[in-house]
Design a protein that fits this description.
The chain is of the alpha/beta class. It has a single domain, classed as 3-Layer(aba) Sandwich (Rossmann fold). Strands 1-2-3 form a 3-stranded parallel β-sheet. Strand 1, helix 1 and strand 2 form a beta-alpha-beta unit. The termini are far apart.
Length: 109
């Protein structure tokens, strides 16, 4: 991220770990933007770890619901064939858990 800063305008960090704060600060020192993305996992979706320090220093923080990301945002034709079954299994699991949760809350009627 830091050594290639002269080749990009925006760095995209997909992590919530505070260990990246020094790298973020160095990239910003080089007058670059830093966007940080996180996936909210599970049912209900939530972010399990996000450093408040990291969130303070990035220029833009964005999170996606894991199911929404896998179902609607992932560029599926660029995924290696060997990985696709795992993605499909995870989507199926999240959909089943969503349906179960909605039934428990009486939202499916």
């Amino acid at each position: 991220m830091v050594s290639l800063a002269s080749y990009y305008d925006v760095a995209v960090l997909v992590s919530g770990d505070a260990d990246f704060v020094p790298a973020v600060l160095e990239v910003k020192r080089k007058l670059k933007w830093v966007y940080q993305f996180s996936l909210a996992k599970g049912i209900p979706p939530r972010i399990y770890y996000l450093s408040t320090d990291l969130k303070t220093y990035v220029d833009r923080f964005i999170y996606f619901d894991e199911l929404e990301f896998l179902r609607d945002l992932l560029v599926y034709d660029r995924i290696p064939e060997g990985v696709k079954p795992s993605i499909e299994d995870r989507k199926r699991d999240l959909l089943e858990r969503t349906e179960t949760k909605q039934t428990e809350l009486g939202l499916n009627e």
